[in-house]
Amino acid sequence: MLVSFLKKIGLTFSLNDPQWGRGSQNNDQNGKKPPEGPPDLDQLWKEFSQRLNRFLGQKADGGGGKGGGYRSDGPGAKIGLGVIIAVLAFIWVVSGFFIVQEGQTGVITTFGKYSHSTMAGFNWRWPYPIQGHEIVNVSQVRTVEVGYRSNVKNKQAKESLMLTDDENIVDIQFAVQYKLKSAAEWLYNNRDQEEMIRQVAETAVREIVGKSKMDFVLYEGREKVALDVGVLMQQILERYKAGVQIANITMQGVQPPEQVQAAFDDAVKAGQDKERQKNEGQAYANDVIPKARGEASRKLQEAEGYKSRVVANAEGNASRFKQVLSEYQKAPAVTRDRMYLETMQEIFANTSKLMMDTKAGNNMIYLPLDKLISQSDSSAKAPVAAATPATGPASESIPTVEMRFGKDGRARDTRDSRDREVR
């Protein structure tokens, strides 16, 4: 519409026309065209004023004075002025349209004060200076780095060095990822929003680390520290009405300061050796203690068995003695002879030496030398296996039993004992 209006008043020029802004009067007196050059701005403004006046209905005065003036025709001038005002008003109204992309929010202000927010799509507001708008991307995940910039090696010692509860210093680098949940709060409630987020993150992590031990922060407590920092940051940002939602806390590096890194590594190795030796000792104890307890239990059981055996033997011997005593009281001489014979038979069955008494008798004594020699040889080679078959025949052929009886077949000890009893 503006172009058509300019065409009506004849203000359309060709920029490629070398004579743009020059009339025929610009030719020199010889009719030759002047050399090409930039247009004369004064002449252009003069021509524009003249054509605009003609369009508005002004006509030159008939006075014929120099540079004759123009007079205004009332209705034509009003129409032209109205058209210009309408065109300008239309352009002003059209300037209030704007487009909000998906994932963005438009924030509208009226005379500089927050008015309302708009959703994605084609929107309109009152043009400047009544209202203004600002488009904010609320779907973007933003990141703030604490303790480093762009790279973990590019450390910021003022932010990363922190004091723990056990008065040790740790070097922490972490990143905070967040999204916007309120574009108006993000824009107008705080100044320098990114720096505000960084300071809140540093405050939160210093508080959490200051309440924790160094080993907990360095090893098993990393994930818990990150979670606690995120919760504390969200609480602080809610009090600030920052319009921010914390998405994630990523620990990039947690370590002792570089100045004491070597000493700390030695301390860590010593602690690991301590744990290793403790585990080895516990494994050895787990191996030895059950064996010792089993051995002790076995010995206790053996002692109980030995005790039971000894007691049973003692009780058996006592019972046997009582029975022998009862029989002895009935027939003392016969019992003594039988006990003597049994005892001597048991003794001679386990010995290779013979004791003979030949003063009172003339019996022929038979010495089983072959049996004795074979018995001694077999006992030297295999005492357990050869002793049993040798003792049987030897005990059967021992002549001491015959020596103890006279020719009349009565025992000498019996006669001697009876003689002693008579005396």
Structure, described:
The protein is an alpha+beta fold and 423 residues long. Among the domains are: 2-55, no CATH class; 97-137, no CATH class; 142-256, Tetrahydropterin Synthase, Chain A, CATH 3.30.479; 352-422, no CATH class. It is 53% helix and 17% strand. It has 14 helices and 13 strands. The chain has helices at residues 2-8, 41-55, 74-94, 157-160, 183-188, 193-210, 214-218, 222-240, 261-330, 332-348, 369-381, 383-396, 400-403, 412-422; strands at residues 58-60, 70-72, 97-100, 104-110, 113-118, 121-124, 131-137, 142-146, 148-149, 151-155, 161-163, 169-180, 244-255. Strands 8, 11, 12 and 13 form a four-stranded antiparallel beta sheet that branches. Strands 5-4-7 form a three-stranded antiparallel beta sheet. The longest helix has 70 residues, at 261-330. The model is unreliable at 8-18, 20-29, 59-72 and 383-423 (pLDDT under 50).
